[in-house]
Amino acid sequence: MKATAITDIGKTRAVNQDYIYTSVDRVGCLPNLFIVADGMGGHKAGDTASRFTVETIKTLIEQSQGKDAISIINDSVKMVNGLLLQKASESEDYYGMGTTLVIATIFDNVLRVANVGDSRLYVIDDNDITQITRDHSLVEEMVLAGKLSKSEARTHARKNVITRAIGGEEQVEPEMFSIDLKENSKVLMCSDGLTNMLEDAEILSIVRNNSDIEDAARMLIDRANENGGKDNISVIIVEL
């Protein structure tokens, strides 16, 4: 297994509120761990929320005595939500802070993933790209209700309104997925700074046409910036 990760401030933001983590080595009972978090709030708050969430989840997983990956991830996400709310109460600067989260681990060619918010995880196989996670956002609800098309949702004025976040409410329910992977599968995780700037087909084309995942990740970042770079951009690519 090989993984690469890049985060970039983009073209318009003053602060990078994304925070990412990758380990192809064991973390606690998990054989590997990959995380993307996209913070929300004021400059200080959003940066703090994403960093605190990722670092705390890593610690919780390291300390977990559980054996089942889904349960370990689910419990850690719920625990970090309460801890982030507690952190937010420590300073007025942190009021209202929160973060999206997508977290994954892979073993025996099975991907286990959880998400909260609109950061995404895709599986790329040959000529196909499949979004595994489901956006917890207002526009996604409108798409599901038939009020918007997918292409309209990407540019909708309320695109950034998310309906579920770490630190948003006292209780959070991560959405969990378990997916069988093919031998040549690639897993791509990203913040919406990428998906708001690139269509899925363009993401697929870049990954397919760059056999080196580090080159692919850098090109995705560069292309997002070329298309406007309106937000922080984070990309993790895992190759089995």
TrEMBL record:
Keyword Magnesium appears in the UniProt entry: no
Known Gene3D superfamilies for this protein?
PPM-type phosphatase domain
Q: Does the keyword Hydrolase apply?
A: yes
E.C. code = 3.1.3.16
Against InterPro entries, the record matches this protein to:
PP2C, PPM-type-like_dom_sf, PPM-type_phosphatase-like_dom
- State the UniProt keywords alphabetically: Hydrolase
One Pfam family name is: PP2C
Molecular-function annotations in GO: protein serine/threonine phosphatase activity
Database matches in SMART domains = PP2C_SIG (SM00331), PP2Cc (SM00332)
Q: Where is the PPM-type phosphatase domain?
A: 2-240
Indicate the segments annotated as coiled coil, or none if absent.
none
PANTHER family xref list = PROTEIN PHOSPHATASE (PTHR47992)
Question: What is this protein's name?
Answer: Serine/threonine phosphatase stp
Question: Native species of this protein?
Answer: Lachnospira eligens
Upper classification of the organism: Bacteria, Bacillati, Bacillota, Clostridia, Lachnospirales
The gene name on file is stp
